[in-house]
């Protein structure tokens, strides 16, 4: 049994949530960012650990990719976004953000562990971990070494959803970590003229899968071109202000599922 790591001295983190997806490209980083914004809007102190080392996208979504996290020799100081969300990512530590990370699994896993143990997170209500996609070596090491309180699984609507979500769920079970629920991303498109919801990829599959696995669906997020363009421009927090009601409702659902933050 691998010993769980502790965050560095002077750091207090109330809830650690790992955001997982069974496969890449379902919008896990976008959803992690939206969760952070929704919780920050509610007044929580939020941090994001970008553990998707080979495809880190959190700094760009928050527009902090030109900043650098610095190390004072003892700890790494995370970057802060405009609304005060603390972010650490390999992209904030390397000279060139477009340099490919050609590292083997153990080195990546070691770096992610350091993001937990060597970063001066300070006082956080919630730390969100944007996990690498899938259920391989790195997610496994993170789950074994970081004291994660629970998991949010992000999925997109498609035929293979059951199989893909099941992998994440089984991994969580193996690690004896609770699953807070599933967020279905790109679930539907809402017509801007008539407000009708169109379930382009089919409706109801996620409920079926969730029921079978005895877990909850936390939220179904729409395909939203405005969300995409603001994320591309590094302005996800502007989206959080523009769509305050929507984000508040999402924040409430997360808060509810994680059993409050004390
Ligand atoms: N709700 C949404 N509506 C429309 N497009 C979206 C939505 N969510 C995410 N996207 C787009 O889908 C693409 C993938 O999103 P993202 O990078 O968040 O996925 P990911 O699962 O983290 O990917 P990876 O596994 O490669 O890290 C991005 O171009 C993003 O803008």
Query: Which structural category fits the helices and strands?
Result: alpha/beta
Proportion in β-strands: 15-25%
CATH superfamily: P-loop containing nucleotide triphosphate hydrolases
CATH class reads Alpha Beta
Spatial strand order of the main sheet: 5-6-2-7-1-8-9-12
- In angstroms, what is the radius of gyration? 17 Å
CATH fold type: Rossmann fold
Mean pLDDT: 90
Name the shape in a single word.
globular
Q: How many β strands by DSSP? A: 12
Percent of residues in helices: 25-40%
Largest sheet: 8 strands, mixed
Count of helix runs: 9
- SSE run: EHEHEEEEHEHEHEEEHEHHH
InterPro entries: Mrp-like_CS, Mrp/NBP35_ATP-bd, NUBPL-like, YlxH/NBP35
Subunit structure: Homodimer.
Family: Belongs to the Mrp/NBP35 ATP-binding proteins family.
Pfam family, one: ParA
How is this structure best summarized?
This protein is of the alpha/beta class.
Give your account of this protein's structure.
This protein has 262 residues and is α/β, with parallel strands linked by helices. The protein has one domain: Rossmann fold. It is built from nine helices and twelve strands. It has helices spanning 28-41, 58-61, 105-117, 137-145, 161-174, 205-213, 225-232, 236-242, 244-257, and strands spanning 12-20, 46-50, 70-71, 76-77, 79-80, 86-88, 123-130, 150-155, 179-184, 189-190, 197-198, 217-220. The strands form three sheets. It has an eight-stranded mixed sheet with strand order 5-6-2-7-1-8-9-12, with helices on both faces. Strand 10 (189-190) and strand 11 form a beta hairpin. Helix 1 (28-41) crosses helix 8, helix 3 packs parallel to helix 4 (137-145) and helix 5 (161-174) packs parallel to helix 6. The two termini are 29 Å apart. The mean pLDDT is 90. It binds adenosine-5'-triphosphate. Residues 21, 24-30, 52, 55, 57, 133, 185-186, 221, 223-224, 227-228, 231 line the site of adenosine-5'-triphosphate. Belongs to the Mrp/NBP35 ATP-binding proteins family. Keywords: ATP-binding, Hydrolase, Iron, Iron-sulfur, Metal-binding, Nucleotide-binding. One of its GO terms (molecular function) is ATP binding. Binds and transfers iron-sulfur (Fe-S) clusters to target apoproteins. Can hydrolyze ATP. ATP binds at residues 22-29.
